[in-house]
Amino acid sequence: MSISFHKEEIEFELPAEDHLEQWLTAIAKKEKKTIIQLSYIFCSDQYLLEINKTYLGHDYYTDIITFPYKQDREVESDIFISIDRIRENAIEYKTTFQQELLRVIVHGLLHMLGYGDKTEEDQIEMTKMEDHSISLWHELTKV
After folding, report:
1. What's the whole-model pTM score?
2. Which of 2, 67, 122, 135 could disulfide-link to 78, CB 3.0 to 4.6 Å?
């Protein structure tokens, strides 16, 4: 199992990586899945826009793009997250940067675990799972 975190072209405070690994592993385990390899790449809007244009043919900003390599009982993926979008979303949704960052980090994993967000019903289920996962984060990181 390997979970890694990389910063491209941007600086910000990331929660403790060992806590993130423990959290993400626990979420996958609850869904009866195993993380084989998960790479989070945190970047700027411009960096992610170029990926969006090049690989998906989309010319717009987004907060996250997942590239699934294996998505059955075992999960392998690269997950790109725009820190610029996280900052703006935190303001828009009246939450902290850290809470929004956790939400988007887990959102990427939830996609890899089979949760979608294309329909209203899927969005409701995704939000429910994000909220549950963030509650788990707070339980795991209590001092």
Report:
1. 0.95
2. 67
Q: Report how far residue 1's alpha carbon sits from residue 75's, in angstroms, rounded to the nearest whole number.
A: 10
Helices 83-92 and 97-112, axial angle in degrees (round to 10): 120
Q: What's the pLDDT tens digit per position in 70-92?
A: 888 999 999 999 999 999 999 99
Query: Could you please report the per-residue DSSP string of 70-106?
Result: EESSEEEEEEEEEHHHHHHHHHHTT--HHHHHHHHHH
Within 8 A by CB and 6+ apart from 38, the residues are: 2, 3, 4, 24, 75, 76, 77, 79, 109, 112
